[in-house]
Amino acid sequence: MRTAKMFWRDMCLGTFRHGARFLIIPLVVVLMTAGFAEYAANLYDAGTIAGSGTAADYYLCVMQGMYIYKFSPDSTFVIPISWFMLHIGLAYLTAYYPCKDYNEYGAIVLPAGGSRIRWWIAKMFWCLMTVFLYYIGIAITCAISACVHGAKLSVDFSVDLLEHLYGDSMNYVSQSDMILISVLLPFAISVLMTEVQMLFSFLFTPVISFAATCGVYILSAYYTCWWLPGSYTMWQRSSYINYEGVKPMSGFVIAVFGLLCVIVCGTLYFQDKDILD
Hints:
- It is built from ten helices and no strands.
- The protein is mainly α.
């Protein structure tokens, strides 16, 4: 019960109070879906596709990331700004509150909670729920954008439209596989990234932790490697789409193993932490 009370306190102070930061979601969605809507409408008017898209198509557009980048002397690497803004917005949303709360109210809240471990677990649940609300916000905003542009409010993907945008490989990916690589896997990786960032903010500083998170996402855009978690948040990098891409199961293994490490390391860190230090 005490853990639940601390969790709700974190949601009120760490998430709801800073709700304006969630405005990064409609900003990115508007930027990304304007051109997408026009392209879909042109194809529909020309009779090339059966409809003008669905809400699921808009979600895929927002979460696409970028194709696998391959360095060559005549190529130019450009960070996918919209994808970067979306994930860094989430990182910023969760970057500073835990340390600020500990420094300002730790001496009061931790004794009241009866356990440092309960306090840490509550913070981990806070991170998880904030990421969940963030992804819900993405889905809702994509649905609103789809309705505004006359698309169908559906969770089914338009294979004919996606084929024109992303190639013939879309014909061989099932709806369930697309949900796996565009919804479940990015969510799991985002949870991992925010939890690790929170732990590092205590081990080092929130500024260093946030900067490291930004660095990981930039490296993930440049390199497509199984050990760079940011690649798993871009469904175009999946091996289901490109045989050179990252395997989804590797991403889930990294997410689960990483979260277990965060739980253990955080527990050990706070178990003997001096709240007056």
